[in-house]
Amino acid sequence: MNNVMTIIKKELSRFFGDRRLVFTTVLMPGLMIYLMYSLLGQRMVQEMSTAEDYVTKAYVVNLPKEIREGTAESPVEWKDWDGNPDDVDRVFHELEEGEIDLVVCFPENFMTDAAAYEIGSGAAPQVEIYYNSAKSNSYTSYDSLRDYLDRFEESMVNKYDVNVGEETGSLGTYDQAPKNGAVGKMLAGLLPMLIMTFIFSGVQGVAPESIAGEKERGTMATLLVTPVKRGALAFGKVISLSIIALMSGISSFLGTILSMPKMMGDQVDFDMSAYGYSNYALLFFVIISTVLVLVSVISIISAMANSVKEATTMMAPFMIIVMITSLLPMIGVKFGGAFASLIPLFNSVKVMGGIFEFKTDVTAAFMTIGVNLAVTCLLVGVLTKMFSSEKVMFSK
Amino acid sequence: MEELLQVNGLRKTFQLTAKQQKLEKTKEKVKVAVDGLSFTAYKGEVFGLLGPNGAGKTTTLRMLATLIKPDAGDAILDGASIVSQPEQVRSKIGFLTSELKLEDFFTPNYQFDFFSRLYGVDPDTIEKRKKVLFERFGIDRFAEVKVGNLSTGMKQKVSLVISLVHDPDVVIFDEPTNGLDVLTAKVVTDFLLDLKSQGKTIIVSTHIFSLIEKICDRVGIVIAGKMVTCDTLENICAGKPLEDRFFEIYEEKVGKIDE
Ligand SMILES: Nc1ncnc2c1ncn2[C@@H]1O[C@H](COP(=O)(O)OP(=O)(O)O)[C@@H](O)[C@H]1O
Ligand SMILES: [Mg+2]
């Protein structure tokens, strides 16, 4: 036990003594994710809000009075145009350059012809809208004008309305989903996968160095001539690597959580504290047990490799398995309750998803933690065997 | 004389990979590195394994240090079997070979403490021993410099000192002066004689005749994995320089040397 502590201390001094390593594995992931998601979120929010306040500039032929009034709020700056064929090149040029957003042509007597038109009686009156999909202002203007004209058409033959106005009807809100339900469902699909990815990349950054690297550089041999028990060596490595991977994972997780409000904008009013302490505690222990499993597997892979490079290559198939596993619940794969808790990694993804969806399954969570710890013990046993095997440690 | 190490019919073969086969220019899949090697070393003596490159000296010492297991045979070191009690053997010996490297990132000072703790040395003793050994090898001048920034000679000194953190009774050094400049080599040979005077048992391997002549009480000549002769230095030399005797024995056992 003493030796385990000595090994852990050495591994952590190695890690924390190297500022670059600390920066790239712990600080950078969280920071990068925060910046990336925040910027992305800001872009999205910006795009939506500009589309709302933007004043569309449009040339228009034969604009009916009703439509001029109806679009006063949108708002559109209509420039009347006589449709003179000699001007077409100039007008289209302006459209191409983005100086104006739309060119709209109504037929003469549009309102009376449209009102008189009966379905099935020959060609209906045609409205033509010219736009430039390469310019986002033009395209969004086109979209909203089209929308407006469709609604205008409906209002001309209005027989009934569905869910008019705001979100509430006479009995209550139209959408009866629980308050946080929609966001919870979204997070349940997204976060377990992200968490698995974060942990994996954290482990990936340190385990090959610490095991395959020590083998490659001959420092492992120096450890192996000491009377240290191979089990202590394996255990010490797995624990210290887990601590580092956990920090890396937490950093990425914080980056995600903190950027979430910016990502979702003002539209979604969702508070991460909705989950409560007990859920977070459960989540934490599930994550720790998952880290242990991942670290053990990657340590074993690293012990098989003769160099850091080889370890990284050998890890690729396992990474694919982890990624697919964490995607399974998102694409709707359902696995029978208790049985699912017995499959490492899948059990974690499932339990984490449940927690984020406000459907915490405490029994499954404890089973998952138990199974993961048992699997870790087994894997540490395998790693110990590998450290004791000259075939594995001195295979060159 | 008290027997301290009895080596009994040690044998080690290596499976050769295709690449190694090419390198060794052989079609054989198996390389017999050590072939039924036996010898005895007595307490308090310096025993030298002498042989050309590739004779199997390093492989023998690696087996004695329990880094690798023999295919057959055993060795009893101070009552502990290298096959069935490797941990006991490890705590009794100090082992030095070029294969054992120190992490570049840590300072000699940190490494000394780290390995001492792994051997279960108590903190007071660690400090005392460190002071003596660091002074002896001039390591105190660079005790706080990361090993990665040290010269080869400095690194070798640190490795040597690290192999002795637990003050072992048996010291097994593989080619202890290889790659060292003459001054450092002298420090090391003098130190080995010092260890001998403290009553330690020392096993060294080398292909350097002068080192054997300078420090060894008894010599085993190893050729192609086999112990060809094993006797006191005087008996082997029989009044001639060791180098001459070695080639006589070599030609007697193997045949004419023609390059
Ligand atoms: N791990 C290994 N795999 C294959 N062959 C090896 C291995 N280690 C040593 N050998 C071979 O065994 C023989 C003895 O090597 P070694 O013990 O290093 O000799 P020495 O130390 O006397 O120079 C050499 O031919 C060497 O190539
Ligand atoms: Mg050698």
Radius of gyration of chain A, CA atoms, in whole angstroms: 31 Å
Ligands, deduplicated: adenosine-5'-diphosphate, magnesium ion
User: What's the total count of β strands of chain A?
Assistant: 4
Shape of chain A: elongated
Mean pLDDT across all residues of chain B, rounded?
93
Report the order of strands and helices of chain A.
HHEHEHEHEHHHHHHHHHH
Helix content of chain A: 55-70%
- Cα radius of gyration of chain B in angstroms: 19 Å
Summarize the helix and strand pattern of chain B as letters. Answer: EHEEHEEHEHHHEHEHEEHH
Strand order of the largest sheet of chain A: 2-1-3-4
Q: What is the average per-residue confidence, as pLDDT of chain A, rounded to a whole number?
A: 87
Notes on the protein architecture:
The complex is a heterodimer of chains A (396) and B (259). Chain A is mostly helical and 396 residues long. Helix content of chain A is 67%, strand content 5%. In chain A, helix 1 crosses helix 9 (230-264), helix 7 (181-217) packs antiparallel against helix 11 (308-327) and helix 10 runs antiparallel to helix 11. The radius of gyration of chain A is 31 Å and the shape is elongated. The mean pLDDT of chain B is 93. The A-B interface holds A 2-3, 6, 10, 13-14, 17-18, 214, 217-219, 221-229, 390, 394 and B 65-69, 87-88, 90-91, 95, 99-106, 110, 114-115, 117-120, 162. The complex binds adenosine-5'-diphosphate (ADP) and magnesium ion.
